[in-house]
Amino acid sequence: MKQLLLFVTLLTTTFIIQAQPGKPVAKPVAKPVVPLLKTTLDSLSYILGESSGYNFTRQGFALKLNMPIFNRGMNDVLGKKKPLLDDAVANTCLNTFYAKMKEPKPAKPVVVKPAAGILKTTTDSISYILGESTAYTFIQQGFGDIKFNMPIFNRGMNDIIGKKTPLLKDEVANAMINGYFFKMQAEKSKGVIEAGEKFLAQNKLRPEVKTTASGLQYEVIKEGTGEKMAAADTFVCHYRGTLLDGTEFDASYNRGQPLTMPANQVIKGWTEGLQLMPIGSKYKFYIPYELGYGLVGNGPQIPGGAMLIFEVELLDFKKKL
């Protein structure tokens, strides 16, 4: 089911805002005064239900889902239970339905009835599959551990699909979901953060290491004699990046071609550090997570909260015209 052809990649939570490198941890917002939403979990359930409703609406689904079966699909995935449908049957069912739905006037109703006890109609099957798809998306986004209040989740989804006024204003929903997301990331990254902070505290005691006001640490391997660049200029440099344990996650040397980019379009630690370097220099940067990829990290290679070590060789730069 992880390979659902249409929906696993299309479903994206409306309210999640990508964290920018160095962005401070957002504080969770106090629960809104809404009678139905008595707890933070209620509010999160409603907001993520809204998100699913927005996604189904954008994809043009004019379908009244069987909500108990939709919930069963979600809970089977979140609870790591065996799905009622295998991947091939689910993909065929969903894609056939989706293709027919896009036709101006279908010649006849789409009927795909997999052999599963509770799935008696096409609507049942589609409801179950979309429930699974939604759950996989939440897991990918880091919300897989939430114990959803399913009736309130359903209310959020149906409010959007039914074009009703949401219980929460967009800014409140955004603040709550992002507050939860960053709190969750901070807890997940706690060990990585502590290891990085311990290293930096010891590293700054070495006489060859300098520390800037922002917390960036650097040491000069080779001091060049050329000009220094500004943040708006475009650098040309070779580099090697490693994690605290020495794992190399990227290196321009391996590609045989230096990186060329504006200095203000990379992580904050680089933007600051490059401006310290005359052309021809080679420095080593020790970058706290706040000046790197923050609590979110960058793909599977750089975990959230990771302190980064870069060897950077500034070959040249081009002034912004």
What is this structure's SSE topology?
Elements: H1 40-58, H2 67-78, H3 87-102, H4 122-140, H5 150-161, H6 170-188, H7 190-203, E1 210-211, E2 217-222, E3 234-242, E4 248-251, H8 252-255, E5 259-262, H9 268-274, E6 282-287, E7 308-318
Antiparallel strand pairs: 1-2, 2-6, 3-4, 3-5, 3-7, 6-7
Helix pairs in contact: 1-5, 1-6, 2-4, 3-4
Task: Describe the model.
Strand 1 and strand 2 (217-222) form a beta hairpin. The relative contact order is 0.15. It is built from nine helices and seven strands, in the order αααααααββββαβαββ. Helix 1 (40-58) packs parallel to helix 5, helix 1 (40-58) packs across helix 6 (170-188) and helix 2 runs parallel beside helix 4 (122-140). With 321 residues, the chain is α+β, with helices and mostly antiparallel strands. It starts with 39 loop residues before the first helix and ends with a strand.
Largest sheet: 7 strands, antiparallel
Q: What is the H-and-E element order?
A: HHHHHHHEEEEHEHEE
Helix content: 25-40%
Shape: elongated
What is the helix tally?
9
End-to-end distance, in Å? Answer: 51 Å
Average pLDDT metric? 84
Low-confidence residue ranges: 1-30
The tally of beta strands, per DSSP, is: 7
Gyration radius (Cα, Å) is 25 Å
Structural class: alpha+beta
Proportion of residues in β-strands:
5-15%
